[in-house]
Amino acid sequence: MAVHIYTSNGEPSNLNRDGFVILDVFDGYYSFLHPLITELHEKTGQLIDPWGDATFHGPDLVTLRHTINAAQDLVASQPPEWDVYVGDHCHYDDQQQFVRDPMYTKVSKHEFSDLLENISRLIERAASQNGSVVCIGD
């Protein structure tokens, strides 16, 4: 499951696929960003998630830019690699007791910074063309 992030110069169906970004929900990067994504949703009404679509234009595009800048600052303060909680593995043990084992995945500061920089480029392209950033869940 992923979110595909594009730019559009008007109609959301007119997507520019050059430099598009894929944000995989299970690789740790989305999970780390989730608190910021939730805050962005509260401010704009747009939710970046794999089950729906979101479009950022005008003031919402500015808010998205601020969110990505905050994410870049947050990532810059992290070690070169760190573990991110991505969910629970739920199962029954040998005694048939329900167990939740937390699952973590390692993320890379370098890869994360590159991902956020690519999203920033999309935001700047959309802003310079009076367009929008379109996030499509699959």
Structure description:
This protein has 138 residues and is of the alpha+beta class. Helices cover 39% and strands 37% of the residues. It is built from 3 helices and 6 strands; from the N terminus they run ββαβαββαβ. Strands 2-1-6-3 form a 4-stranded antiparallel β-sheet. A two-stranded antiparallel sheet has the order 4-5. Strand 4 and strand 5 form a beta hairpin. The longest helix is centred in the last third of the chain and has 20 residues. The model has no long low-confidence stretch (mean pLDDT 94).
Order of helices and strands: EEHEHEEHE
State the secondary-structure class.
Answer: alpha+beta
Low-confidence stretches: none
- Compute the number of helices: 3
Strand content: 35-45%
Number of strands: 6
Terminal Cα span: 6 Å
Portion of residues in helices? Answer: 25-40%
Roughly what is the average pLDDT, rounded to an integer? 94
Largest sheet properties: 4 strands, antiparallel
- Rg over CA atoms, rounded to whole Å, is 17 Å
Strand order of the largest sheet: 2-1-6-3
Based on Cα principal axes, name the global outline.
globular
Keywords:
about 140 residues, alpha+beta, two-stranded antiparallel ribbon, 3 helices, globular
Provide a short characterization of the protein structure.
Helix content is 39%, strand content 37%. The chain is built from 3 helices and 6 strands.
